[in-house]
Amino acid sequence: MNYRRINLKLEHPLAFWSAFPDPSERFFWYDSQKQTLIITSQRLQAVQEQDIANYPYVFYSQSFFDEVNDELWQDFGNEIVAFKHYFVQTPTESYVLSCDSLPEITDEKGSKLSNSYTEEASDYQEWQSLYQKLQENIAQGKTIKIVASRQIKFTSEQTFKIEPILERLIENNPSAFIFAYHKAGKTFLGASPEILVQKEGNHILSYALAGTFPRSLAHGDTRLLQDPKNLHEHQIVVQKIKDKMLEKSPHVQIGETGIMALKNVFHLRTLLSTVDASNSLIDWGKHLHPTPALGGQPSKAALDFLRANEKHERGLYAAPLGLIDAQGDGTLIVAIRSALFDGKTCYAYAGCGIVAASDCQAEFDETKIKLKTILEAL
């Protein structure tokens, strides 16, 4: 496919997103580590993995579970998509790659008005019921960890405005990957701190991100590094990612466990890396998903429990998505700290890892803290 390059410097990059209203499909991607912003617009076509090299970038996503049963998520996931237009902004250049005519791009700052919203009734009783079943599952020896999640519904009198939400996500989450996927009138967006797998040439990197304390806790970072329950939960994830990597590569390098400090929480984080020349980024994404940071351990038993007992459909929540370039390199994050917007309705998602030593109220409170990522952006 032939794309022409057009130099385009935008003081307000979201103007490119706004220039393609419905029914245009779009993807927004901000990599805070590389300070690179990419906005894709207007679906060209779904492509096969072997054809990725024909396009500047493709958007890849797979649903959390193999099958999606809820109509809310029917249009999302499990495809590789090429687009007609790509706006790329790096610290040194700014341009568009396009294979079709562009609409007029008006470089204006959008409204930053806050969205007013109402939260539906608390789901704590439902959470208690799920938690009880989960601990019974662990006590019976079927699992040692399960990552439970909540779906919280918010409604607004006006249609939620996506552009100011994205701006605030970038401002509030300088260490995260900011993403938004708009399709069929809905937008799934978030600010994920977690890399499932990153591929640069032969270098493969994954994050073990598990174990959480609130940022408001005095000396929370130091205490988290010494907390037995969180260290145990974290080590389950490290060990599983290591084992999965060793299935595809003979050597795995494990970094030192440290703290990832976000706006509202501290996380334990360990980087794992390997060298591999024979598997694609998508191969690795399918191989590693879901880690025990998103599903549980053992994986099949944990997923069976979640499928049977969580009342909401996860869709793309906590699932792999990202951009892949023409060389096959890129980053797949897990789509946590996220929400699905459908007109005047927002479905926000938050989860937490539960082990035998967990506490029901404390875990519920942890999900409320994680929800702040979305709520503070509204």
UniProtKB/TrEMBL annotation:
Gene3D superfamilies named among the record's database cross-references: Anthranilate synthase
Main EC class the enzyme belongs to: isomerase
Residues covered by the Chorismate-utilising enzyme C-terminal domain: 124-370
Catalytic activity line of the entry: chorismate = isochorismate
Molecular functions per Gene Ontology: isochorismate synthase activity
Keywords: Isomerase
EC number: 5.4.4.2
Protein family: Belongs to the isochorismate synthase family.
Stated name of the protein: isochorismate synthase
Biological source species: Lactococcus petauri
